[in-house]
């Protein structure tokens, strides 16, 4: 805060001149005289000193900068882009429903020399026309093959004979990905063909919903790769590469808070692509197995925690009508879905066929080894007592109506 300083009136009475105590007469103060030639000489000396200081500082700084390692090997990144960008495509879609026409965009990449392109399901879902733009600007019509909505993956195909020197990208094993390693994203954000962003793997084993906001619940995608490489609209479906130019993930989503992207991106692990690739070559919608309940990881539940058993697991908040869960006798919390309160009367799931499951992501990972129609033994805790239920898995449904609503 600015404060005004008032002058003391008594200060004005103090003499500005020295006083001869013997004569009590004022003796004028004689000003110091500066010879004119001294002024330019002083300026010259100051300039010379400043130049020398700057010169030595620059030399010191330059020597030390050369010793610092760069964030990444620029030549390596340039080489990876040069090789990989030829296999990355921009995808533009048209979705026509009656008189309504909507356009969309995303990215994808060739996984073989037969014209197969992997991308996100949400990029091509419902598209009536799909055009693929190659690195050289050539535009080719593509057709949709298989898709897995619960994994947000889809496969499209072009005529390989229409492309000269078709290049594909190798798929790495994402289970070998480690935090801190180089992560390179290539795609077409905001229709900017073949744009590159560089970062690191920020985290592994992440989980994100495949279709957030859907009324019947959303199946989590497990083992996603988190990265700080910039991802924007149009990057969806493009590759996330390692330092060898191999695909470790398919860029899928970014963290959004208060309507703003906050620089945290997620990619579907390449191991999921590898496991589904043959299935996706058939033009059908691949369905993951389904139990039919809504649940929360107990470790994430904050309200009324004291009413829940101390066992780790998944708290069952609601059970879908006519689902495998309801047919098998699984019980949900009778008031949780409508009041958001946890009463402790819901079952706790903690195992499938002897495999411990502590989170929804754990459960999905185990279920991915099964097919719809397979029977499983579901280990639960009810009223503090362990119990096993026999459940016959169904095909994923998103139109769940909960029994306790």
Output mean pLDDT.
83
Q: Radius of gyration from the CA trace?
A: 34 Å
Number of helices: 7
At CATH's second level, what is the architecture of the largest domain? Roll
- Tell me the domain tally: 3
Q: Could you estimate the helical fraction of the residues in percent?
A: 10-25%
What is the helix/strand order?
Answer: EEHHEEEHEEEEEEEEEHEEEHHEEHEEE
- Fourth CATH level, the homologous superfamily of the largest domain: PDZ domain
Q: What class would the helix/strand composition place it in?
A: alpha+beta
Pick out its properties.
7 helices; Thrombin, subunit H; Pdz3 Domain; alpha+beta; 3 domains; 405 residues; single chain; 6-stranded antiparallel β-barrel; globular
Describe it.
The model is unreliable at 1-36 (pLDDT under 50). The protein folds into three domains: 87-162, Trypsin-like serine proteases (Thrombin, subunit H, Beta Barrel); 174-274, Beta Barrel (Thrombin, subunit H), CATH 2.40.10.10; 289-395, Pdz3 Domain. Helices cover 18% and strands 35% of the residues. The chain is built from seven helices and 22 strands. With 405 residues, the protein is an alpha+beta fold. It starts with 17 loop residues before the first strand and ends in a 10-residue tail after the last strand.
Write a short abstract of this structure.
The protein is of the alpha+beta class. 18% of the residues lie in helices and 35% in strands.
Furnish the topology, listing elements before pairings.
Elements: E1 18-19, E2 26-27, H1 38-67, H2 74-84, E3 88-97, E4 100-110, E5 116-119, H3 121-124, E6 129-133, E7 139-148, E8 153-157, E9 182-187, E10 195-209, E11 220-227, E12 239-241, E13 247-257, E14 260-269, H4 270-280, E15 289-290, E16 293-297, E17 314-319, H5 324-328, H6 336-339, E18 348-352, E19 355-356, H7 360-367, E20 375-382, E21 385-392, E22 394-395
Antiparallel strand pairs: 1-2, 3-4, 3-6, 4-5, 5-8, 6-7, 7-8, 9-10, 9-12, 10-11, 11-14, 12-13, 13-14, 15-22, 16-17, 17-18, 18-19, 18-20, 20-21
